[in-house]
Inverse folding.
């Protein structure tokens, strides 16, 4: 198997899934940048391969009774979801971890930072730069949340718990890319211009995780993604400590704990949906997993390398920051958290979705070692982010 096709962990699932990946998953970053409209029409021609997929695709915008379900959750969301946002006056800010430009010791603090980061291995820097670029593409994610039928903030200052959460979540996330960006800049270990270029390309390319405007799909996707970022930032924290930079370890650990809170919020929303509308929710969960959870920065491109994300993901896997095992374990965690195996009273479509989701992790586990070995052996490019030093 061609290692290039390890893109976005989709090959991992393709090995165990019967449905073909969506067309959008097969395009190169370059292609996606030429025309979003074009790629949309390619997806439209991609006819569903099973009845259950067909019905969910049709449900990508929701019928009025589904909107009522979210309306009925508003009081609960105010008390259980909005409260998971941290008040600004109790929140950390990037400056808490950075040299203070107003202090006399500013240049000394920079020198200390540069000493701490001097011996950090290139592979780690590549992963941290990729994580930073992913965080810096926040405008895309805000557009996604605002594009859903429920989180949609019509006036820009809507008072629904969903809009309050969407704005607060964005405001919390905004600090992640900001802090990593400044830290990497001051370290002098990376080529900031190339990193900035990659971010600009990524924002221009956008993302298509197959969510449409559907908040069922959106909250299932974000439950998965927030947990994935919690795990990966947690691992970069652990490795930073090992590489002799306790401040960087603290930075990554602090970001990881934000991601954990976000994971709790989205997971709770889906938990509630399972309670109120188990059939639609399990069908949406299966639909999401059939499509494979594509990473938000999947369309990453630096102006030189197609499949840049695959190369980045291979490095992340090699140094143990985020691997195919993590992907499978997140799925298992969510299946257990949402008690999917115990759901009862489902329609035949719901039962089919339940069987698919509950058996998927086991099927993945059978090919996991093979996927990990592929990432291990994958040839690497010269990452422009580290000034073209050979890996
Ligand atoms: Fe983040
Ligand atoms: Fe997050």
């Amino acid at each position: 198997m061609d290692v290039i096709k390890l893109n976005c962990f989709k090959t991992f699932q393709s090995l165990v899934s019967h449905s073909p990946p969506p067309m959008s998953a097969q395009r190169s970053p370059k292609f996606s940048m030429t025309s979003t409209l074009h790629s949309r029409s390619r997806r439209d021609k991609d006819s569903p391969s099973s009845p259950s997929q067909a019905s969910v695709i049709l449900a990508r915008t929701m019928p009025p009774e589904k909107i009522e379900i979210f309306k009925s959750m508003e009081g609960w969301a105010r008390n259980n979801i909005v409260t998971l946002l941290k008040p600004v006056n109790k929140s950390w800010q990037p400056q808490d971890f950075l040299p203070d430009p107003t202090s006399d010791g500013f240049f000394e603090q920079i020198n200390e930072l540069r000493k701490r980061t001097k011996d950090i291995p290139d592979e780690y820097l590549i992963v941290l730069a990729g994580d930073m670029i992913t965080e810096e593409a926040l405008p895309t994610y805000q557009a996604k949340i605002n594009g859903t039928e429920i989180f949609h903030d019509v006036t820009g200052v809507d008072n629904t718990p969903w809009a309050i959460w969407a704005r607060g979540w964005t405001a919390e996330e905004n600090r992640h890319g900001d802090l990593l960006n400044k830290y990497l800049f001051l370290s002098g270990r990376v080529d900031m211009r190339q990193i900035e270029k990659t971010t600009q390309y990524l924002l221009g390319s956008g993302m298509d995780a197959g969510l449409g405007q559907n908040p069922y799909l959106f909250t299932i996707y974000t439950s998965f993604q927030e947990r994935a970022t919690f795990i990966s930032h947690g691992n970069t924290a652990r490795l930073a400590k090992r590489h002799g930079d306790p401040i960087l370890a603290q930075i990554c650990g602090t970001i990881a704990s934000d991601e954990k809170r976000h994971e709790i919020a989205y997971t709770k929303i889906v938990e509630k949906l399972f309670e109120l509308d188990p059939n639609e929710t399990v069908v949406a969960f299966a639909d999401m997993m059939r499509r494979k959870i594509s990473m938000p920065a999947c369309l990453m491109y630096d102006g030189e390398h197609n499949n840049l994300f695959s190369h980045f993901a291979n490095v992340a896997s090699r140094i143990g920051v985020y691997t195919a095992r993590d992907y499978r374990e997140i799925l298992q965690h969510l299946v257990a958290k949402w008690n999917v195996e115990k759901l009862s009273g489902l329609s035949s479509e719901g039962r089919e979705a339940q069987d698919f989701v509950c058996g998927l992790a086991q099927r993945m586990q059978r090919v996991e070692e093979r996927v990990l070995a592929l990432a291990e052996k994958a040839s690497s490019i010269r990452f422009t982010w580290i000034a073209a030093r050979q890996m």
User: Anything to note?
Assistant: The two ends are 23 Å apart (CA to CA). Residues 135, 173, 176, 229, 259 surround fe (ii) ion (ligand 1) (CB under 6 Å). The chain has one domain: 71-376.
